[in-house]
Amino acid sequence: MRAPAPRARALPARHGAAAFPPALPAGCRRRLTPSSRLLALLPAGEYGKLIGAQWRELTDADKKPYEKEAAKDKARYEKEKAAYEKKSKK
Q: Do 37 and 49 sit in the same domain of this protein?
């Protein structure tokens, strides 16, 4: 018989969502990334060059959804950052 999987510990009540810094905006990186196998083989500089080349090949119309998502993500980040800074000053 297997032992039950350990449960994730709940954070104490004083640790709300604003207790931790907000996640950084992801921008368009999410959809342009190559497969994880390729990523494991590439040095960081080569990976950046690959993503940059893919971005430059996109037309303005193809970039539009990524830019829209990045703007929305940036607004979310700024809102969470302001809440975090406000809470941490108390």
A: yes
